[in-house]
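Table S7 (text form). Paired inputs.
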Amino acid sequence: MLTPEDALALYHAGPEAVVGALCGLSLEVDQLGQRVKELEGQLATNSRNSSKPPSSDGPKKPKPRSLRPRGERKPGGQKGHPGRTLKMAEHPDHTVVHRVDRCERCRASLADQEPERVEKRQVFDLPPPAPIESTEHQAEVKACPTCGHVNKAAFPEGLRAPAQYGPRIKAMAVYLRQYQLLPSERTCELLRDLFSCELSEGTLANITESAHDLLDEPVAQIAQQLKAAPVVSFDETGSSVLGQRWWLHVASTPQLTYYQVHPRRGSQAMDDIGILPDFTGRAVHDSWAPYFRYDCDHSLCNAHHLRELTFVHEQHGQSWAKAMIDCLLAIKQAVDHARSTTDHLPQEQIRQFEARYQQALDQGYAQNPLPPPPGKPKRGRPKKTKPRNLLERLDRHRAQALAFMYDFNVPFDNNQGERDARMAKVQQKISGTFRSEAGAGAFYRIRSYISTVRKHALNVIEAILGVFVRKAFVPPAPD
């Protein structure tokens, strides 16, 4: 800070000293102003204008503001929509007849009189909880009277211990623990309350480990099908294992899901997982650099772009960002409209959208010139602003950002991968950290199977039952 004495000494030093000091102060003020803008930008980021998750918004959540244009229809059920309501069963399981034995008015007996009509009302409810059933298997042992050889009947496959739980109770335990995400203690408590099944947490862990082992080959086939898929969404998110930050990696399509947890986030993890190194289709992802190491086609998530452009427009007041938002949404609307009748946009319309995209970039470069070179050369690349970095990314990867316009099989965003990754955050909120690497691996392998089953609209409990009877569901390979 300049004191009065320093200012007086500077004045007596002459005009050149004053000019030099003022230029230095001006540069310092500019630097401080830029730093203030950066800090204000950090405070202004939220889940609506950045890649931050909604859980980081805290109590002051941003007001929802959809970028989609308003439709012509009002919210809610539309006119003519049949709706869904509870319907009466044609053949109820039980029938209770409420008889009229006497006249309410004169008390005459009506017990032998046939009713003129019957009014019906039905109640749908669960049957009372039933305890688990025990089935004893008896294997006969007979000695041959001719040769003396002792013959013993074979028990069914998998029946080894004198007493053990059957596949249905195992399927229910895995369903509650791995799909409904109940903690171990509450899973055992629910099984005890509903089925009088005194299952211990140790036995529950053994059942989970057994499901993990039995799913080795089915989940490996899911990974193989993902390698051959034409378009796959990739994403990664944090996962807590042994109290440390690990990473859950997701590869998914509308029919397939594959999860694997790894202590690393980048290329080493992707190489170890083994899908991306052999993948030859189109990878849909955010613009994180390690994805571009792989020799496949790429498509960038435009939902990420829209959030970042919203931040640039609202916090930096730059009109090019709004122009780019409108351009991307207009292309999406055109693609959605054309998809019902064709598999491509007309070339003239594509050229018009490309020109509009370029106009938004040109406008952005005019509003974000490169900073002047510093007086003293510095090592490394010159620091750029957030809007400039976003602008250059959209320019450098325009083919990947607009891939959904050229190929209707490519989605506009990476919502598929992000939806499939969201389950990990729910698990983390409920149960916190995984206490072992094996436990994390078992959870995510089983979830790979369950998520794939759900995408094929199958009953999850029956599908888990199929695992324990060696008839696990495997998605049919595409033609």
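Next pair, protein 2 of 2.
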Amino acid sequence: MDKPKVIFSFGTRPEAIKMAPVIQTFLRDPDFITKVVLTAQHREMLDQVMDIFSLRGDYDFNIMMQKQTLEFLTSTVLTKFQEVLAQEKPDLVFVHGDTTTTFACSLACFYQNVPVAHVEAGLRSFDLRNPFPEEMNRKLADSLCTLHFCPTIHAKNNIIEENIESKGIFVTGNTVIDSLFYVVNYLKEKTLESKRKDNIKKILVTLHRRESWGKPIEAVARAIREVVLENEDVSVMFPIHKNPIVRESVMPILGDLSRVSIVEPMDYLSFILEMQSSYLIISDSGGIQEEAPSLGKPVLLTRLVTERPEGLESGVVRLIGTDFQTVKNEITKLIRDPIYYQNMVRIRNPFGDGKASKRIIKETRKFFSLPVPEDLQSLSDFV
């Protein structure tokens, strides 16, 4: 039998972070031919991650442009990826998560009768407009995929309940924890350490979701402003998204405060260092909900719904929305109530154990009827 050829396709920094350890695992396995396709629907931050993990793309669509629309992204990725499929003739394509790249590449594979493996399958908010368009992207991708690698049992149950046809639904843990452990070890080897002043409680903030543009982000920014003005031991680090709508909402409210540092988007290494040195994190990000528990950091999630209920159930994440008074009250409580704070940080990470990539290659080998090495045979589903 010829070696199975697998293609990994992705286009954003979060996808790259979560796909990188899986790609590294496959590249080390001589029984697979592994190719990487970058759509680069987000360019700059994607390249940073590729460098950290010493990866390169075999194809690079480089499609990012100013004010790109979802229609442009979908149609362009669909067309270009179909050309790659025709040339490479892969046996399996890996997609990740919930981006436009995820959906468009899955659709191209469906048209060409190429099986697809979905990493981080099964996440659901049960609201097609929150987050938008990610909820639709992941639902459609799951319906087109052959293998489903779910981060948690919740995600697996979502696939089962939707009666999606599948050759296998596996609980692997989230690959972002594999990446986090890799980077933390890398930082130790480079003797790079996070620095935090004991008397200052630093709040790390990231806000970017499309459904929060405008007034919701402004309300969160106003709440942060009042907390800073009322608490001299609080500072804020805010790597601000490049989207001008986000910047126009945040800068007039927080830009004049001396204890608020609004900086350009950080590379992944720098951001992990900031996470390590933070006291708490305010975010509408998906990945941060998964990473922060492994670093012992509580997360206040400024969204109305989340497709990652495990964080809420464990208590390490609190869903607070974007109401001004609610956001202010929740930040203040974490700052001033040490017992409440400690109850959020002393929790096992419900999202992964750093072995997701091994579980994925184990099940992929079985899919192709390849023998499973001894070191993988005893590896059970993540629970």
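The radius of gyration is 21 Å.
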